[in-house]
Amino acid sequence: MSWGRLTSILVLAGAAAPGIAWAQDVIPAKAEADQAASNVTPYKPDFFAQFRPNSALDMVTRIPGFLFSNGSSDRGFSGTSGNVLIDGQRPPSRSDSLSSVLSRIPATAVERIDVIRGSAPGIDMQGLPIMANVIRKKDAGLTGSVGASVQVDRAWSASPNATLQVQNQSGGQTLEGALNYSTYHSEQTQFRARISSTGDLLLAGDSVGFQNDFKDLEATGSWEAPFLDGKLRANAKIGHETSTFSNLEKLLFPGGQQDSSNDETTDSGEVGIRYSRNIGGFGVELVGFQSLSKEDSGDTFNTPDFTSGDQGNTKRGESILRADVKTPALGAWSFDTGAEAVYNYSDAANVRLFDGQVFALDGDASHVDEIRGEAFG
Q1: pTM value?
Q2: Most CB within 10 Å of its CB: which of 184, 241, 257, 272?
């Protein structure tokens, strides 16, 4: 090799050195991005068109290899969420189930659904191996739906049900509302006999007034909008539920009649607020939640020999405060830390009657408090 040719090779190598160093920085970063992308499988509306979905819930349940989980009703937020996020976050609600929230998102308002396996940047997998992320269109406009049905049993007892749902997405804001009314009515006739071990008839009765009625009315609403350089979401739910049961039984043997009844009324409500924003590269999320409920019940049981009954009421509440901080990515590493505080209480009181006289039992009145805190990382 001549001296001039060797000099040319060394000059070219020196000129390429900055490019080689740049490639050494870019290639690992590109590999990390490719790895994150390989963990995410997007499903666009075209995929679900064959199923004719009405809501995001219909779409989620059609994802291949994905089994929808509605979450649990355990106390607190940690470990109770389902396996579906909405725009990368979980709704700050408890009794308003994930399936109910998804059913209020029209299929026409969904841009795509990402199925995440393992992990993805900016997504809290909440300890789950697979998660679906419903990404909504920014301006889907005003949509809504109305539904009604009547259930009729063999005794021609009718139970009407109705739903109304409205959603408006415009100007970066989302406003949702829903009203649900459901009933159940049943009338039956029954015959029963009580026979001793020796075959003697002890009791024979014919129910002539067996009725069961259930009514449930609930209203839900949520509002999401930009706020203080971040995003604020507030949701609320109220519910009123009644259940009545009565049974009049003619005693064919030994004679007479007996009747029983039960009445229960439950009023409940909850409010949840979530605020999230980026501060100096740190992702910060604050969640506050409050739920209250009150249950009143009464029972009576009257026979030819005695009368009995009881009255009871229970009050419950749950308060949750949660903070979550995600650090900026440090190369291939990311960190998530936070804390949660939960307060639960339950007050219960019962009054029992026998032949018109009040009698008490241990545990008729109780008060329970629970304060729990946890930190995670």
Answers
A1: 0.77
A2: 272
